[in-house]
Automatic annotation (TrEMBL):
This is ATP-binding transport protein. Keywords: ATP-binding, Membrane, Nucleotide-binding, Transmembrane, Transmembrane helix. It comes from Agrobacterium vitis (Rhizobium vitis). The keyword Iron-sulfur does not apply. Pfam families: ABC_membrane (PF00664). The keyword DNA-binding does not apply.
Amino acid sequence: MALGYKSRRGGAFRSVFGFCAVHWRRQPGRVVFMLFAVLLSTLADVLTPLFSGRLVDAVVSGRADDSLAWDSAMPVSLGCWPLRRSGLCTSNVDGHHRLYVRPCRTLPLMLSLAFNAFPAIGIPIASMVRRGKVTRGMWALDLLNDTVFVALFPSLVMLIGSTVLMTWHWPMMGLLVGVGSVCFVLFTAIMPVRYVAPMASMANSWDTKLGGSLADAVTCNAVVKAFGGESREETRLSWVLQKWQDRTRRTWTRGTLNGSLQAALLMVLRGGVLGLTLWLWSAGKASPGDITFVLTAFFILQGYLREIGMHIRNLQRSVNDMEELVFLHGQPLAVVDVAGAKPVVIERGKIEF
């Protein structure tokens, strides 16, 4: 499988995000509120290392009455902490920010779409639900909303804010952190799309085929036994199962390799920042507070960067799960009403044999 292999539905990311943008435009107030709350919460993470470094310098000075200590501690307690809690609409569940104000309108909207649009293009809704295309796409949209609004957006804010602050302190440190972070983000963005996503799309396709084959095997069991076709049916199922197992294993292998490479890149970036910090300290260009600021800011940024890979993998998985649903949503109607058609009104009816 080539690195640049394209799935059978090229432009999946573009079509899925175009589909989601339509739903986002229907609730602009909610979208703006979520982005604003997450922005305030993330700014606290950006500013806390700065005041922490100043506080360490004040403590190291040994003067308990030094106004610098109080001037540094007050912004942390009275400014950054309220900012951090300003996202009262967010909570921490398994280490990920989740909104209390959920875009819950999208879930029933997906089911409404399924039951109204799919029959109009000639697709049996029972078959669609059985094969998981509707429910899988519905929950994938929920995951995509969380990933974009409360995962990738604050990571972008944290990356830009930390780079600007470090550049303001030491241009060399800001350059190292900025270039290293951008390279890491580009790697984590390109690898899932070009290396993992094509195989994941194929694995999802075979997962759908496996579900359909199992459903056919169960419903047609009596017919198979009546004609003595057990061995032929087992051969067919074994072939489908083997193809599904092979595609799924290759998807998991690529995902694991992608995660390992991301961890290695992050370790290299961490070593570079620590080495440059020690060099600045040994050259007398950094105070204890400066070192505290750099290390605290980088470790917070590192947490965001470490999760970016997971967020992009979640984004890629959401797009793969929604791909078929969005494709079907864009199909032309197979049953079109005649222009000017009126509803049928049946007053009486009977059954004749």
